[in-house]
Amino acid sequence: MPVAKTSSAGLAATRVALSALRGGIPLVAVLLMSSCTTVKTTTTARTATEQLLLSTATDHALQNTGLQIFAGRKVFLDVSDFDSYDSKYVEGTMRDGLSRLGGLLAGTVTNSGIVLEARSGGLAIDESDTMFGIPSMPIPIPLAGVLQTPELAFYKSQKQRAYAKFALFAHSRETAAHIYSSGPLDGKAYDLHFRLLFISWRRTDVPEKKLTREEAQKFQTWSPQYDLGNLPATNGVVK
């Protein structure tokens, strides 16, 4: 019975194929076992730092308004001529301050004895950057496009400062006689970043940007206040 003979070239090819198969099995196993998870993230048009700077400057501006003179009186807060960034927060802070100091908030003009008008002189952020070193610059590369070189900064600072300016004016609803003018109510807030070679640090008076609760409390302008004696009888504690 004839026996098929395999040439030496065929045996060599078979050994190479088996060797490649054995070497490829671990690689295939690793590829099959590995996985990748992609988390989708989104962002907002305005940064948190911007909004916190504006609200902190607002809090500072409205710390001392003199609104305690309206304690026990019905006051209507007129914000029809008030226009600024984050105006709703500013208006809410004014209402909060008026109520905390004893004023009685009226829902309509006709239900009040005093009209308190609010206006804004400004609520915005100034920004400045300073750097000593070699700035990043584009270098055209033939057939490859443009290469952006890294920034080499010996010293760099990025400073954001928020400024707020408001004013309040009150008059009698019935006679239109002048009662109160606050004058300019000014407030500031800052967020400063510095870097010297590989050392970086920051300075800020925004409480929410402080690293510890103790640090944040030093920069809080208002603290919680409770007037439980003013609770309506219908909202009494359930027994």
Can you walk through the features of this model?
- Helices cover 25% and strands 33% of the residues.
- With 239 residues, it is of the alpha+beta class.
- The chain has one domain.
Describe how the helices and strands are arranged.
Layout: H1 8-33, H2 48-61, E1 74-78, H3 87-100, E2 104-105, E3 114-134, E4 138-141, E5 145-148, E6 152-172, E7 178-181, E8 185-196, E9 199-204, H4 213-218
Parallel strand pairs: 1-2, 1-3
Antiparallel strand pairs: 3-6, 4-5, 6-7, 6-8, 8-9
Features:
elongated; two-stranded antiparallel ribbon; single chain; 25% helix; disordered N terminus; alpha+beta; 9 strands
Task: Kindly summarize this structure in a few lines.
With about 240 residues, the protein is of the alpha+beta class. It has four helices and nine strands; from the N terminus they run ααβαββββββββα.
Q: Can you count the beta strands?
A: 9
Shape: elongated
Low-confidence stretches: 1-6
Individual helix count: 4
> How many strands, which pairing sense, and closed or not: the largest β-sheet?
7 strands, mixed
User: What structural class is derived from the secondary structure elements?
Assistant: alpha+beta
Radius of gyration: 34 Å
Terminal residue distance:
106 Å
SSE topology string = HHEHEEEEEEEEH
Supply the number of structural domains: 1
How much helicity do the residues have? Answer: 25-40%
